[in-house]
Structures are given as C-alpha cells and as structure tokens.
Request: fold
Amino acid sequence: MRDVHGRGSRLSVGLRHDTPMHIEDISVTDLLLDVDNPRHEPMKSQREAITALLADDGREKLISLATDIAAQGLSPIDLLMVMPGGTNRSSHIVLEGNRRTAVLKLQAVPTVVRSGLVSRVSSSSLL
Reply:
C-alpha cells in the first residue's frame, strides 16, 4: 500500500466523540464507510456501499481520485471525519471522506469490489 501520510497504512483523521473533535491516527482497516451516506440509498454492507459509490459516474470520479492519491498522497488539510462505531472496538465510521476511504480500501484489498475500477487503478500504479 502506498504510504499516503508517511505512516504506512495509518491515517490522521478528525475523531468526533461527545467531546470536542481531536486528531488521531487510525488504521485504514479500522475505517468503515457510512452505509447511511447521503450520496446514496442506505446500504446493508461495506461492499454495497463501495458499489454504490462506483455507480453511474462515480466510477470515473473514484478513478480520478485514486490517480490523484497515487500521485500526490492525501492532503493533510482534508482530514477524514470519523466517529467510533461498528462491531469492533477499534472500528470507526467515516462521516466525511467516504470516497477517499473507498479508494484506500480498494488499494489495500482490491478484491473488495470486482469491477473495472480495480484493473484501471492498477494500471495507474496505485496498487
């Protein structure tokens, strides 16, 4: 996986609790897409949420975003916004940054979605 922040597969994210927001490093594998994301209908699983982000013109947008992340990494200005959640104590639901998270998850585990995105992104040396 490409080192997007200089810390391997960990990302700095804005973490929202019942207290004021703070910044914390969290593993990409502990990030969950928001299955109730307002960009699409509610989904039942992470796979469905990624598939929804790929629907219509979403595929081209994700390919463009993946290419940008591969070339330049993630901007420290655009932190993901997350909140604790999921079945695992270390899991966090992404409130802001679901498309960036989907790209990073596809980069880490490309079999998560079987689509043209994986081969197209592979050719741009993201994988």
Notes: The longest strand covers residues 10-15.
